[in-house]
Amino acid sequence: KFREGMMRGHKKIHASTMKKSIFLIGICLAISLQLIQAAIVEFKSNKLGANTYYEEKEGVYANHAPLTQRLGKPFVKFNFDFTVSKQPTTSRMRTDVLVFPHTSLDDIGKDYGKGKSYCCYSEMIKDGKCQEKGVIVDPKAKLLYRWAANWYNSSTDSGATNVTSLSIPERQITINDSAVYYVWVMSCGDTDDDKQGEVSIVGTVTIRNIYGYLPGEQAPLEVLYWVIFVFSTIWLGIWGALCCKFREGMMRMQHVITAVLVLGVLENLFYASSLAGYNVTGRDNLALNVFVFLITTAKSTISFIGLLLVGMGYTVTKPTLPKNQVSVVTICGFVYFGVFFMWQCLNMLYNTSQTQELNVPYNAVVLFLVLTIIMDFVFLGLIYFYLFKSLISLKPNKGSKKYTMFRNVAILLGVFYLLSILLFIIQLAASANGKEDAWWKGWFFFTGYWNIIYFIISVFISFLWRPSPNNARYAWSSQIDDTAAPPQVVELDNADGGFRPYGSRRESSRPDEDDDNKSVVSLESSASASSSKGRQEYGNRL
């Protein structure tokens, strides 16, 4: 899930005019996985051209952090070595390094033309919008650090010193206030279309919170994953005890639920452990991430397939599936597993500075993201389509346990789908209006929400399908209505010497027995009155 400003590593953001734009990021918000933003970012001869910049930002707690506060004051630490790799085509190119809180973001740059320009260009100086070439910073902006270097083209700028390399020795800036802090490394050309000048950067940026290296936006997620892990383990233990007690006659769907519950426990355990490890080291364990991706992908795939099989009525309303439905389930399962796993791996490799040498194409990441989203919608559409078909087939038996089960599953999924859409709209609106930084302490919920939903749905469905003495209550049968009247009671000694169903009408010389629908009441009354004739008739009828 790509989230602006929540990515690990540093990414070059090309902007021909360095103007701020609003991007439609809705499609990129539909997947649940959230990667960690790097607290330690390495620059390994990264190229920074004119009118481009690198951005690293992270939420920092100065106090009242969700994790144990044990490391003292938080800080931002960095060092850079700059070398000119391409001479600017015009008189000069300027490189700036800025460190500032998110509250000062609006004070950097100036409205010009159709958007906001961060660089001061020649035409802007002529229009009186700025006075000096370089990054425009309003005097009231609260900058924690600023460094600037001018790179001149000596052939076009007479008298200029031809400096080709400069360094920033290690600097550490103590942070006293909780906020989102930005580190910008930005180069501005002479004009907004200047693309020729380029510098090479070697260095490191380190951001440490009061509790460790885990970004402030991610810290509540570690707590959430541990909480869900504990409750998932407890529920898995209850489920396992029921499976052991009522193991005779367990259905296939119950074994599928067991696998999903186990994978859910492992997923939350490894997610929490990964965040805890990152908090200590500040670096990713790529092998562990790939293992977690496998667990997450397997859990999601099995969950989708299980819901789809239930919707199709497999072993519930039909003993086997037609070949075309088997093909649908198989193809969707394999395709979803492949594209979801590939997207997670490519997204990690693209966003992690530890693997920047691989130069993973951004288009490949977007392609697999789009394919994953499409498969999500395909699965959800198929699940609801077959659920409603099963409900329609069971409509004549509305009071049956099977109908009630299908109805409850459809209602539960519908409620959570609507809540998910509502949350997606809120997140999209917040992103479009630049609220990520203002909401940074609670932004984790847009990621953790999906784990909460999964846990609730898995508990609900496993409760419906819990092992019991009657494991076959949802099993396929000849569709006998389980709400139908029980078999009729037969009288063995009626006046004619034959047999007749209890409750049928017969002629009687006694007016109080002309309606057998009332005979049970009269018999009970007679028995309680110690009438021998009544007791005999009552016993015969029983």
Q: How are the strands of the biggest sheet laid out side by side?
A: 1-4-13-6-11
The residue-averaged pLDDT reads: 76
Coarse structural class: alpha+beta
Order of SSEs: EEEEEEEEEHEEEEEHHHHHHHEEHH
Characterize the main sheet: 5 strands, antiparallel
Inertia-based shape: elongated
By DSSP, the count of extended strands is 16
Output the radius of gyration. 35 Å
* Helix share, percent: 40-55%
Total helices: the number is 10
Give the end-to-end Cα distance, rounded to a whole number of Å.
Answer: 69 Å
The portion of residues forming beta strands comes to 15-25%
Pick out the low-confidence regions: 1-37, 478-484, 502-542
Question: Would you kindly provide a written description of the structure presented here, covering whatever features stand out?
Answer:
- The longest helix has 32 residues.
- This protein has a five-stranded antiparallel β-sheet, with no helix packed on it. Strands 3-14-5-12 form a four-stranded antiparallel β-sheet, with no helix packed on it. A three-stranded antiparallel β-sheet has the order 2-8-7, with no helix packed on it.
- The two termini are 69 Å apart.
- It is α+β, with helices and mostly antiparallel strands and 542 residues long.
- Helix 4 runs parallel beside helix 6, helix 6 packs antiparallel against helix 7 and helix 9 packs across helix 10.
- It is elongated, with a radius of gyration of 35 Å.
- The chain has ten helices and 16 strands.
- A hairpin with an 8-residue loop joins strand 15 and strand 16.
